[in-house]
Amino acid sequence: MTQDIEFVRAQFPAFEQAALNGQAFFENAGGSYTCGQVIKRLERFYHERKVQPYGPYDASRLGGEEMDEARTRLAAIMGVDTDELSFGPSTTQNTYVLAQAFASHLKSGDAIIVTNQDHEANSGPWRRLADRGIEIREWKMDPETGHLDILDLANLLDERAKLLCFPHCSNVVGEINDVAAICELARKAGVYTCVDGVSYAPHGIPDVGALGADIYLFSAYKVYGPHQGIMAIRRKLGETLPNQGHYFNGDSLYKRFTPAGPDHAQVAACAGMADYVDDYATHHGGTGEARARGAFVHDMMRAHEIKLLQPFLDYLGNKNSVQLIGPRDANQKAPTVAMRLNMPGAKAAEQLAAKGIMTGGGDFYGLRCLEGQNIDPNHGVLRISFVHYTTQDEMAKMMNALDEIL
Fold it and tell me: Which residues form the Aminotransferase class V domain (predicted)?
């Protein structure tokens, strides 16, 4: 069965707005359109439940129940226990809080492994722990391909290594790393894993339980939701790390890494992400429990993306004026396609904007990633990124516009 693109686009009010008419959106890696299910819940919360939650009166009780619903349903889709999932103001903030917890937990001489493929949010906070006596080791990608070779990682794992931080896929390279295999290798070496899923989760919420990551992070606003960071942390690790929240919340796993109170309305609205998964699955014939429906939706979204992505990668591969970053096989790549052009990436994005193509150019907070591939971050790259609601007509329009500017 193929995805019903008309049904999908009907779930996103942005496609009905006159202000966006005639423009094709290709900067989804920076943040996706919000689905109507999320908007409906957010609007209802502000209209009816914008009070302190978990109180005895109806508005407060219902607000708290909706916040709990978001955690329960998203955790079920991700294959983790409800209290292993928590919300924070952003993935960057969640990572920073985690880094502070590890800084108190580790001792001088312990090692953390990071990559140069990452977005800075999952690299910078860990690298700063060098000031606390923690050794920082870098798992380097191939400068020609951007690939992270698992054989190179094996050489970095020893008795001093305690944590491995890496992306599910880079927001520049786009290659989908084999998270399950990497986590298994680290686990056998006694090393915890922290996976940045920000650039992968928009292409199907992952089954974190199956991947085996100790920590998995992503941003709701890139997965059709509000601006919240979502973090899953396995119980054993979460209860081992020192509490970063209020001392009286130390016994509550989902509060241990939330130093400040969450945005009640946005947390509640995240239940709309689960609504969308359910509605999508039901429309396309998906059945079973939440985890099975989530896997069904993930696979359908990816199938649609791959169908659109492979012709685009083939098109770019035939252009001598384009340095395509990352793999050329759509099965190995998220539809996040960065390319170095003769002109600066930001200038190319400006020219495309004038032709109704909304995209971005620059370094995308991946300076180390660009430098690791011998690309000047000041020159930057053009990044074309899309998701499952993108159409073949939009792809054609985008490639015609690229032909005109190259």
Answer: 25-242
CA separation for the pair 151, 168 (Å, rounded): 17
Alpha helices per DSSP H over 140-228: 150-154, 179-188, 208-211
**Residue at 306: amino acid letter:** I
**In the chain, where the domains are located:** 5-34+299-405, 42-274
Closest CA to 247 of 235, 238, 239, 255: 255
Phi, psi of 185 (to 5 degrees): -65, -45
Please give the model's pTM, rounded to 2 decimal places.
0.97
Over range 301-327, report the average pLDDT: 97
**Residue-wise pLDDT tens digits, 91-106:** 999 999 999 999 999 9
Q: May I ask the CATH architecture of the domain 5-34+299-405?
A: Alpha-Beta Complex (3.90)
Residue 252 CA to residue 218 CA, distance in Å, equals 21
User: What's the topology of domain 42-274?
Assistant: Aspartate Aminotransferase; domain 2 (3.40.640)
Q: Whole-angstrom Cα distance, residue 333 to residue 46? A: 39
Burial 130-149 (b: 16+ CB within 10 A, else e): eeeebbebebebeeeebbbe
224 and 74 in contact (C-beta within 8 Å)?
no
Which secondary-structure segment (H or E) carries 358? strand 357-358
Instruction: Show the beta-strand stretches assigned E in 89-228.
Output: 111-115, 135-139, 161-167, 192-196, 215-219
φ, ψ of residue 394 to 5 degrees: the values are: -65, -40
- What pLDDT, in 10s, does the model give residues 12-41? 999 999 999 999 999 999 999 999 999 999
Q: How many residues are present in the chain?
A: 406
- Output the DSSP codes for 248-271: GGTT-GGGTT--S---HHHHHHTH
Measured on CA atoms in the order 301, 306, 312, 316, is the torsion positive or negative?
positive
